[in-house]
């Protein structure tokens, strides 16, 4: 099979003219660097969480999944290394914009707000505190960067320039509708989804289709609701733990030669706990 992409986490293979195989590795990245050692089972967790959410929001927007059933994979992928971490998907014309939605003020958004009172140039009320819930989720798209480069936040007006008004409006609505439905569900399971990002594409008929991954610990900030407190940074079920460890140990701008075993184990446990809470299934 022709490998057409090898990203920070995913490998993409071309099956034929209209189908792809997405394989989720155990690699983990932070601050745009791929870490030197993998996190066991991480790819399986991400794949299963995405599969759950794709199904959960299928009433809002169709998705690219053809099957995640190992027995229905092409012969080349009927190997144990691909089981539970792969999905056969429709080939889409992916949009050149990452669709970020923020329900809480944190991360780079909090840093910008402190400086300018805005997030991605969207004016927000005065007096907001770190990690405070916003009155309404906001859509803050970015351009997609090549591997190793940083994505660049853009205004909605720039998004319209890139996609056209109708498609930009459709993408914005789908992004916020998906976030609201999933955030409400996650909260019922004791998880706050602070922010996340989606990727959309167009099928052969020009219909909007949800692709890539959905609401995983790689693409989202998950906070435990029972520990949530406005005015400080939060504990998390995502790779924020790894980011914090890297920052605290002087690896913000260059990865270590090797991650300590306890950091890998803690990260793995956080991913698995997120999966089990969200889906109600044992990993």
Topology record:
Elements: E1 2-6, E2 10-16, E3 19-24, E4 29-30, E5 33-34, H1 42-56, E6 65-67, E7 86-90, E8 93-94, E9 97-104, H2 107-116, E10 118-119, E11 122-123, E12 133-139, E13 142-143, E14 152-153, H3 156-163, H4 165-188, E15 191-202, E16 208-211, E17 220-224, H5 240-248, H6 261-279
Helix pairs in contact: 1-6, 3-4
Features of the shown structure:
2 domains, 27% strand, alpha+beta, five-stranded antiparallel beta sheet, eight-stranded antiparallel beta sheet, D-amino Acid Aminotransferase, Chain A, domain 1, 283 residues, 17 strands, Phosphorylase Kinase, domain 1
| CATH class annotation of the largest domain | Alpha Beta
Indicate the CATH architecture of the largest domain.
Answer: 2-Layer Sandwich
What share of the residues lie within helices?
25-40%
- Oligomeric state of the chains? single chain
Roughly what is the average pLDDT, rounded to an integer? Answer: 94
Please identify which CATH superfamily of the largest domain we are dealing with: ATP-grasp fold, B domain
- Strand content of the residues, in percent? 25-35%
Q: Count of DSSP E strands?
A: 17
Query: Which fold does the CATH topology of the largest domain refer to?
Result: D-amino Acid Aminotransferase, Chain A, domain 1
Helix count?
Answer: 6
**Judging from the principal axes of the Cα atoms, what is the shape?**
globular
Q: Runs with pLDDT <50, length 5+? A: none
Number of separate domains: 2
């Amino acid at each position: 099979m022709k490998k057409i992409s090898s990203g920070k986490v995913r490998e993409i293979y071309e099956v034929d003219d209209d189908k792809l195989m997405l394989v989720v590795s155990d690699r983990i990245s932070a601050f745009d660097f791929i870490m030197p050692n993998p996190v066991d089972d991480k790819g399986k967790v991400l794949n299963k969480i995405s599969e759950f959410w794709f199904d959960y929001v299928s009433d809002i927007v169709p998705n690219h999944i053809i099957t995640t059933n190992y027995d229905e994979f092409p012969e080349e992928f009927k190997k144990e290394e691909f089981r539970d971490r792969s999905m056969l998907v429709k080939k889409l014309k992916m949009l050149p914009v990452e669709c970020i939605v923020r329900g809480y003020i944190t991360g780079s958004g909090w840093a910008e707000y402190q400086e300018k009172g805005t997030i991605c140039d969207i004016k927000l009320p005065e007096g907001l505190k770190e990690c405070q819930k916003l009155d309404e989720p906001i859509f803050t798209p970015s351009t997609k960067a090549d591997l190793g480069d940083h994505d660049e936040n853009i205004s909605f007006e720039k998004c319209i320039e890139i996609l056209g008004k109708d498609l930009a409006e459709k993408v914005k609505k789908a992004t916020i509708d998906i976030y609201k439905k999933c955030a409400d569900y996650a909260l019922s399971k004791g998880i706050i989804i602070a922010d996340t990002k989606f990727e959309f594409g167009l099928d052969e008929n020009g219909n909007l289709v949800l692709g890539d991954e959905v609401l995983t610990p790689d693409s989202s900030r998950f906070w435990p609701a029972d520990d949530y407190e406005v005015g400080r940074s939060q504990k998390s079920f995502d790779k924020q733990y790894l980011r914090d460890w890297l920052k605290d140990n002087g690896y913000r701008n260059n990865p270590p030669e090797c991650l300590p075993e306890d950091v890998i184990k803690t990260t793995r446990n956080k991913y698995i706990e997120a999966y089990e809470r969200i889906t109600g299934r044992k990993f």
